[in-house]
Structures are given as structure tokens and as C-alpha cells.
Amino acid sequence: MSATEREAVHPDAVAALKKLWQDTAEIDETRWAYRASAAVLDLFDPKSVQPFGAQPLDGGYPDVDEDCEPVATRETSLRRLLPEIREETLHRLGSREQMRAALDQNPGPRPSAMQRMLDHIVRGSDLEFETLDRDALRALLVARRWFGSALPSSELPNESVVAAAFARADLMAPWMHLVADGFVNRGRQLKKLKSFIWDEAGSRPLMLYGIGGVGKSTLLAKLALDEAKTNGKRIVFVPIDLDRPNLNPHRPHTFFVEAVQQIVRQLPSMAGHGASIVQHLRELGARYAVSDGGYDYESSRSYENDYEWIQQQLIDVIDAFFGSLLASDADRALLTIDTFEEAQLEGSEAAGLLVRLFDALSEKQPRVRVVFSGRVRPDAPGLVEDQLLPGAPAILLRSLDTRSALSLLRKQLKDVDPKPTHDQLGEVVSAVGRNPMCLKLAGRIIQQDGTRAFLDDADRKKLLEHLRAEKIQAFLFGRILDHFKSKRIRPLARPGLIVRRISPDVIREVLAEPCGITLSNSLTAEDLYDDLAKERTMVEPDGTHGLRYRPDLRRELLPDLIESVGRETAREIDQRAVDHYRRFDEPRARAEEIYHLLRLGTDAKLLDARWDPRARDFLRGSAPDELEGAQRHWLARKLNITLDSASRQTASQDDWERMAVVRAERYLKRGDAEKALAALRERIDRSPGSEVYQLESEALRILGDFDGAQETALKGLEGASDEARAELLLKLSSIREAENKPDEALQFADEALTLTEHIDIGDDSMLDFRALINCIRLLRKLGDDDKRNVLRARALKLVDRKRLRQLRDFPKLFEETAAELGVENPAVLEAAVRRLGVQVRSDQQEAALVDAFHTIWQDGFEQKVQMPKALDPNLVVKIGADKQAAEEIIRQSKGAALGKFAGDLIKVASADTSSATRFRDYFRESVEQGLKRQY
Amino acid sequence: MSRKDCLRQVIAKYLNADIRRMVVPGALEDVLPDGTTLEGLIEKRIHEADQSFSLPNLCEEMKQKNPNPAFHNELDACMGVGMSAGTLTGVGSRPRWYDEQLPMRRPLFDRDELRAGLYDMLERDPVNTRLMTVRGEAPGKSYCACLIKHVIGELGLEQPVEIDLLSIDSVDRLATRLIDLLGLSHAQLRDRFSTEVREGKYFNDWLVGQSRSFAADKRWVIVFDHLAKTAVPQDVANTVIDLALRAEDRSLTNVWIILLDSPESDALIDANPPVEEVVSPIQQATIQAFLARLVDLRRAAGDPNPEVPDPISATLQEPFPLATNRLQSLRRDIVRWMRTGP
Description:
The complex is a heterodimer of chains A (935) and B (342). With 935 residues, chain A is mainly alpha-helical. In chain A, the strands form 3 sheets. In chain A, strands 4-5-6-3-7 form a 5-stranded parallel sheet, with helices on both faces. Chain A starts with 10 loop residues before the first helix and ends with a helix. The relative contact order of chain A is 0.05. Residues 16-37 and 81-92 of chain B have low confidence and may be disordered.
């Protein structure tokens, strides 16, 4: 490009450059000398640090705040060199000798892990990674980065080895914390688990279950720590906790991705394979519709075939990965899926699918062991409906035996002075029971109060009498409440625990009067609140300047609490809470208002009037379990969760229909139309315009009963809302299209499109866009280009960045859009292949893909795109000239994990219409086969 | 001159009888309270618009009310729209500071998505754009911070809160850094977490609560760097991801989050972040184009010998994409050349 072809240089830019020349003073040598010393130190005092190769200045390090960040320690004057300046300075020092000399300039104690690692690198001394703890390994990884451009890699610790050692130490850290908090003999269960792991015969997943606080996670932690020390046999641990943000029970591929990533962290040699597997898993996962907003986003979805295929692919992909792992790097892989009750709370469909997938994995890979750990029995609602684990091993974790309980309590109280005697401990155990969490909490009470109560006969008698009098577990929590350091807040626990959240306003307006608290200038609600905030065993912060009672403790205590404080008091608190929260217009307040309205038995009409979807997240968890009857059904419906069959039988027709819709939708998404139909036919009656019609029609369509599907859809049109009507019309259209009657299909789609133009469907709805894309496709089939072009121009205007993001949640519609608009807007093609990958499920698809890759490749592309790691690069560069190379690539990979590569190619070749046409044809093929259920 | 000042000048310039006739009857007449001058009212609107990041919206509104093309042109000019000639490249569809090629006096090549994303996040659609991720295997992700700082500086906003996760070894340390940098109270934190913060999600709950009291006129942009690095402990990484999701769903009030060197996390993928820059390797042609413009600029600034120095030209002959250390070295050479006048 010549200067004349370029844009003119703006005077502002010229002025800015001149100013830069004026302002840029070279960093003087004294400052570089200070930088050199600081670069090999973790922390330093800018006043006393000695510069390397220059005389110290009176004021110490000059302009220190420009180069360094302050570090919060007790010695607050300490500074740390900014990473970028450190890297530049090390690069400038250039050699290890210079760095060593700089280090020698400031000898002294080396207290921090980071400084020890800097010393090691600068001095080039050997390190035994196995002896380093987590902090040291982390420091070494970071320090290694700083030296990356200053010293040759061969002179630095091997990054992947250090990273793997750190990953293992990081993995073990929470286990060590759990076990350090108190672990006592669970010998029998440990033995059973060990034998489960090492038994030569394969095993189905094991279910470890028991009430909250009984020690499930601690037992698994102990198992892992014990087994990590096993010599000779190598075991890879994959702890998966449903608390983690990346895991979504409705998107099962996320569990496999998490497992692969954890393994790769521990075994970097698996990184290449792992990256390809993760990409493939995500491409498959992207084919699940994400949104909870409906079930028929995609006319070309053959639910049953599609989802069965996806699930089978997921299993095959993860099977291949574990097969490779166990062939070379490990003898066993132990996957523990903790807090599994979270998945069960989402309903049997979500939990069931997870169990089925992991069961299939352990069946295919007999050296993979899977443990599901949760509070709920395996035959509890959630698993029993599908009979998913008949005959699978299970361990029920009960409270400790007396000896172990005493031992745990003794460990808890080892620093208490005077030490409690064996008899005193025995008395506590007999009073509070043998649940480890109860014992730990009781231990904390005694730690706080000391053991002096035991010295005074009267106090001791009083304490133990209370303990003996109420042995139920709830009492223990009551004991904790009564052991609040501040006696004045005890009433806040009993009966105040009726509310879930506490703030000074709640104390003032809701609790004070029913709890018998008299507020005054000397005892304000803020005082009580501050006292309560310090009781970490009972409350935790929430997001509203407030506190919440710990849900697990509250769940255990609530039934007994209501009995003991009386229903009238409970109702008064509920009513006051409703009055209090009604004044605020924000989701959390609305959630609390609704929660208390539900507890008061309020009817559905009033609840509907107060409902705010944003309150949903604050009502999930234990709230549905605390309610009964119509209120429970109402909440389940609003939260989109399903209840057990007994609850469904007693539901009103309206509640039942909504639950049936949720269940059927989930079954359809899992690829089980028969179960969906069974769920919908639990009852025969239908309300006019019921959503059940739509799902029933869809299930019948998938099962191939087109007549039944059509009849049901037509019935559903009677009394349906405009939006539901548009949905049903699109369904009728897709039935006709599948029957190869595009003209009739177009009539339905056109009517749906017209309808969507006149109804307010909300900004996020895709209904109108779906109707538009359906019409465009049908017009293409009918050869009506004039009308199609008009609609296509309209659709193209709708495809902006936001629409492309929305389409990511509607995989089939994404394909349909790429199939109709991809040539005119290659960004749609690119986004679709990046998100969904490419799949080869038929000869036609394979041919279309070969053609697309062959056409798109041009010389020099290897410089512009990232070559897929799983493919032979020598073969890839030939695909443009040699169609057989393209065929070979597609055959080898079956399209797996090629999404990014294809996306890169489409991006760099965006001006090439012929290659865009080929990729568009691939999508057309995919859509057509879906419509005709030809997979 | 800040954009706000520029806007004031343009409006003042057009605030003659004609513009009064055009603006006041159409837009402001009905809402002018007694005793308020038109100038005062416009100043108030500018102030309000600045608080809510909607200066471009205000300009659009004024354009609709006032059809004078000259007024439109000057408004566009002061908002930076269409001033691509003023930058080394410039795309012409957004204010020019987003297209700065030398942000914070450093060369920044390419990064179109980042530039567009920042515009969405800071000005065009800040309500819906709360989370931005910058990821990819190519080097240069952390380096993008220079553009973020440059743009935020141009807009006169609070400088971003930057947290390098490589310096964070525990959730407690992360919590402490956030408390420090957001100017929150350590005492309140310690009231809630009497020993140390172990559970990131509880800390995030607390932070969500605290964010509601953030001054409405303040915008916090938190930049987390190196989230994808192995040296970041898993509990810290999970806490940051959880926090990012809370920014994205707007639970966090007045907080925008940018994840530099973001992992390809499933939670983030499913959250569908509105802005996602995938850093691809810098191409030789991109750097050559950049250097050609720099040569023009040097020539215009009076450098008699503006040609690219030999060490830089030599590096350009190496095979691309460059490895991280070579790219760093090239950047250093370019910066040095850029800073050195004739």
C-alpha cells in the first residue's frame, strides 16, 4: 500500500507523536539499577533496597509507585515490582550471572515461597517438585513466567511438569482441609470404597448417601488422600462438585468437559487429546437447545433420533478419552460426583440422564469408577422412576459409632483448657448424638464457652439435663441457637428462624414483637443484627446487606421449631414478613414475600398477581420441600421443577398440565418421545388451549404418527392464545413439510408469520424469526424466488450480533438460518460451525462437507488459520488441490472437533461465494434430513 | 478537550436564535421550568447523559429534534464518529479513541472485536453489556489492557480495577484485593468472615449486596487477567467466574467485568457473553500496515529518516505467527522506535 493510498495523517496524531518524543525521557541508569535488584526480589522495602550497579539514593527507590504495587502486609511499606517491568528488567539483565549478582546485592532472610523460588531460578539449583507444597509450586509457575523471555527454556524448570504438580497439589488442598477439620474411623466404608476402586471386575456407579453433615465429602477426601499415596498403582482423581459454576445438570456434556479438564491439569501429556475432546464435547453439547422457554424452536429437529445420537456420541467421545488415559497414564480413574442432590432437586429427568451417561461410561471402561454422593437415597424420587441403578452398589453413611464420636470430639477439643474428661465427652455425645457435623458444632460451642461448665456441678447438670431432655437432632441446632454468645439475640433464632433472611429492618418490623424483643435506644435492631452476624455457625451473608440462616441447618430445624413456638406465632411472623417485603420492588424482596405468602396458604390467583420471574433464583433450593399441597405445586410450576408422582396425582388440572409440560419437554430434549407421551397421558382431560396439545402433537410427530400429531395440533388450536396458535401452525407446517407437501406447509407457516406480525411476543422471542426462516425455506422449495427474496432481505436485516448470540441457544434454528442466509451473510455460517461443529451422519452430509473443505482451501491459508491438532497438517494443506485429501480428512475425523477450523476457514475466505455456497449446502442437507427424520 | 467539553462548545456555537427556534420549541419548551435557562438545562442534560453513559444517545436525540446538517456534522465530529482520518487506521463507526493504535503509547494491532466490544460496554449499550471476555491461544491478551485504560481515560471515568490473578493465591486474598480496590470496608468483611474467606460464592453474595450502595454516578470496570492460567487456584478461578456471571446477569450493580486471558469455561459459554474477543495470532500483514502508517506519521511529524529500523524489519522476515517472546521483543523495538524522535 502506498502512502497516497492510505488515509491522510491527522494533525492530532502528529501532535501526539511529537509530544511523545518530548515527554519520553529515557529511564535513567540509577532507576534501572533499582529495578534490577527489585526484579529478583519478591518484596522489598523501597527505602532500604540496594540498587544493583549504582550508588543508593538518599530517598531510596526513585518513582517507586510508577514501577511497583504496594503489598498489604504488616510491613505496609513493602512493594512488588510490576510483572511487566520485572520481565523487561530480567530481559535487560540478560544472563543468570547478572541476575545472581543482583540478588547478592540484597542478601537476607527469604521468608516467602515466591522468594525461595526466585532464588532457585536465579541460582539454577535443582528442585524436587514432589517436595514442594501448593504455594511453592504456584510461586514457581509464576516466577517461571517472569524469566520466560530472559533465560532459555532449557535452563528453567519444565513448565508442564510444574503445572501438573501444582494441579495435583491444588486438587488435594480442599481434601486436606476437610480431613484436617476432623476425620475419625470410617474403616468399614473406606475398605468398601477401596475395594470398589480396585476390584478387578468392573462396577456400576456407587451411590454414597446420608444426611447432611454425616461426612460424605470428608470420607471421599480421606479416600482420595489415602489412595494418592498408593505406590505402584496409579489412580487419577476427578472430583466433580455440583456447586461449581461450570456444571449444569441440564447440560450433561459440562460434566464430561469438567472431568477432561481436571485430568489434563494433572496430566499435561493428555493436553492435545484433551483439547480436541473438549471441543468435540462442546460441539455436541451445543446441539442441546439451551433455553427453558419452549420445546419447539426447531422444525427440523428429530428429537428422538437427534438426542439419542448426541448422547451416544457423548459417551463415545468420553469413552475414547478415558480409554486413552487408562491405556498409558493410569490404572484407575475415580470420578466422584458430590452434592448430587442438587441434580435430583432439578427433577428425575436431569438426574436420570447424568446417571445414565456415567453408568454407560463405567460399563464401557471397567477401570473407571464413579461415585455419586448426595443426601438422597438412590431409590428416592428422582432416581426410582427410571430404575436407573438397579443392583448398583450403595453405601449408607450413618452417624458415627460412640467410640468414633468420642474420638472426633476429643480432636475438636484438643486445645481447650482444661481438657474435658472421657466421661464428660461421653455425656456430651449421649446428649447431642453422633452426627459428625453435630459433634463439630457442639465442639465449637464448648470451644467458645470453655469446659468450665463441667467443673460446676450445677452448671454441668443443667447443661446435660437439657441435652438429655431433647435428643432429636433439631435440639442440637436449638442448642447452638441458645449458645449464641449474645444472649439477647436468642429469640431471633427461636422463633425468628421462621424467616429465611434477616436485616435490621426485618428485626424491627417482622420479628421484634412476636419474638418478645423490646427495642430501645440502648438495644437497637442494628445492635442485634451485628451480634447475629458474628454467629458464623448459623448465619451467612446474603446479597442484600443482610444475613440468611444457613439453609441446611434451617431445613433440619424448621418442623420442630414450628411445633415448639406454636402455629399462631408462626403465622404472625409470616404475615408481618409479607407486609414488610411487599413495600420493596426488587426480586429478592419479592421472593421472600412469595415464600411467606406460600407458607400462609395463599391461593394461586393472588400468588400469580405477586409473581416476578426474577424471584425464581431466590426460591430454588429447599423452599419447595418446605411446602405442601397446592402451594407446593404452584411453586414447582413457577420454578420449572417436577415433583414426584404422588404429588402430581393430587395436583389440580392446571398444575398438573404445567408439570406435565415441563416433564414432557425434558423427556423430548433427552430424546425420549415415548416417555414424554406417557407423561402427557397420565391424564386424559385437557383445558382449552392447553400447552399439553403442543407437546403431545410433537411427541406423536416424532414417533411417526403424523395423523395423530395433526389431529392433536388442530384440537389445540381451539381456544389457544395467539402465540400458542403460531406455535401450533408452525408444527402443522413442519408435519406437512415432512410429508413432502411444501405448498400446504407454506400456508401454515405463512399464517404463523402473519400472526407473529400482529402480536407482542417480546424482544427475546424467536417465534417470528422461526416463522420467517420456515417460509423462506418453503418458498425456495416451491421456486417462488420473488417472494423469497423479499423475505430473505427482511431476515438478513434481523441478523445482527445480538441475533447470532440468541441463535446459539437454538441449534436447529441456527442450522436452518445458515442454510437459508449463509451465502449472503457468511458470518452466520461461521458462527454456526464454530458453535455446532460439523457432523457426519450420512453419506450426503459427508459429500457436502468434502466439497466444502475442498472448495474453500487456498494456498497460504495454513498461515492464516490455526491448524487442528488432531489432523495431519501435511494432509490439510492438500485439500484444496486434492479432493481425496479432503475426503480422507472428513473420513478420519467424521467431522469431530472441526468447528473452529471450519470457522477460521470461512472467516478468511469470506469473500469467496462459491465456498460459502458449499457450506450452506452442507447445512441444507443437515436440515433436510432432520425434517424427514432420515438420520 | 474532553468529549463533554467538545459537546458544550458545539451546542454553545449553535445556540443562536436559529438553534433556539429549532431546539426549544421541538424539544425543550414544554419542560423548561421557570427561571431555568436553556443553557442550564442543556448543561444538566449533558451531565445526566454523562452519568448514564449515554452521550451518544443525547446527541441522537438532539439530531432528531434539529435537522441542521451542519449541527449534525459537528456533533458527529465531537463524538468522534467519522473521524477515522484522525487515527492511524480508524473504522469510522465509533468514536476514534476506540481505534487508537498507540493506546498508552503502545502499539496495538488489530483487535477489532475488542474495540467494538469496549464501545458497546462503555457507551453504546452499557446496560446489556456487562461482561467481556478476551481469550484464545495466541499471545497478546493481557496486552489489551492498554486499550481499556486508554479508552477509560479518554472518557474521564474511574480507572479500571485491575487484578492479576497470578498474584492471587487464595479466595481470601482475592476478596481482600477487591475490598481494597473497590474502596470497601475491611471491617464489614471481617464481620462476616471472621477468619478468612474460603467460600467464594458467599463472598460474592456479600459483594453483590455491597454493590447496591455504590454511588450511582460511578462505574466500576474490573479487569481480571490470567484467569486461564494453570497457576490460578481452582477455587479462585471458580469465584471469579461466578462473579463474572453475576455481572453479566446484572446482580452486581454498577460493575462491568472484563476477563483478559479468559478460559473457555462452559459457564461463560452458556452465559453467552455479549462481547467475546478471540485473540488470533498477529499476522505479518497487520504489522506491516501498522508500520507503514507509523512511517507516514513520523514523516508528517518532521522525521527526515522515517523508515522502519533494521532490527524491526529483520523480525518481520521471521516466520509468522511469532512466538510470544519474539512478539514481545518486536513490540519493545517498535515502542522504542516510536518514542525516539529525530
